[in-house]
Amino acid sequence: MAPSLFQVSLIFLIPESPRFLISKDRHEEARAILIKYHAEGDASSPLVNAEIAQIETTIKLELEASKRSWLDMLRTPGMRKRVLIAGLLGLFTQWSGNTLISYYLDKILTTIGITDSSVKGKINIGRSCWDLVNGVTLALVVKRFRRRTMYLVCTSSLLVVYVGWTITQQQFLVTQKAALGNLVLFWIFLYSPCYNTGYNALTYTFLVELFPFAQRARGIAIFQFFGRGAGFFNTFVNPIGLDNIGWKYLITYCCWIAFEICVVYFLFPETSGRTLEELAFLFEDHALADKATAATDKQLHGGSISVNEIADKNEAVQVENKQVV
User: Fold this and answer.
1) Could you tell me if 214 and 202 are in contact, meaning their C-beta atoms sit under 8 angstroms apart?
2) pLDDT for 239 beyond 80
3) CB-hemisphere CA count at 13 Å for 301?
4) What is the pTM of this model?
5) Own/partner long-range contacts of 10-19 (Cβ < 8 Å, ≥24 apart)
6) Hey, what's the torsion of the CAs at 68, 70, 74, 79, to 10 degrees?
7) Which residue intervals of 65-146 are DSSP H helices?
């Protein structure tokens, strides 16, 4: 209870979202926050004016195309793709083998010859401390890198861990060598940093970047629905699998994690290095992004650049990039 109360107390120190304030017509409050945190207190900073203009126009375009209902989540191909990614991500965070270690470590340790309750307790405490250290460390570091890259590193390393664990577990049952049992422990401890590379703190950062402002809460709710459903499934299926087929049950996780790698590679977009307003049109027609850019420029410079000029400029840049490649 103490950690939860500590987190609740810190909520009051977090500034309100400028996007939320602008959506509620509280522009001056939003401007004050942007001046404080993005312009180092300079009220005349052009950066603040640009951000205000960009947020206002993007939210306006989103709300014009949205009826603010759950049907919005399936109305366009872009939103359907976002929903698919969020649902799969919810499954991945629970079906990547983490619940097997968290809930059934006692049974796993018994299969490798560790039966003493005192030793099991020490291993469990050590693993929990290790999870805390690498979880906090990676949460502070992982957002500095490209999102899709970190998910690929996460899923690929998880596959290596589970393949190594499966082979080692099978060999221990055949030879009963203590060294192989220790190697199983090594894979179990290695699992945590591999998982935290992608499926811990990075997940909510990615979801916020994936969904536009008007649908962001519903998108995270979809992620939570699939995640909780997968957790419910794990509670009843994992013990049955371990009891009936033993070490061979680990093979199912190897196959599933291999599937995760394919999904991340072919389906997950790269969202790093762009503002939330730019990401609002990630899967939509480029004309919407051009319209937002043109509206922002009009507010800043009196409409010196038209939508067509921006589109022509973007096309020219794309041609130039192709020539360079």
Assistant:
1) no
2) yes
3) 9
4) 0.78
5) 18/51, 18/55, 19/55, 19/59, 19/213, 19/276
6) 60
7) 72-75, 77-94, 98-111, 117-141
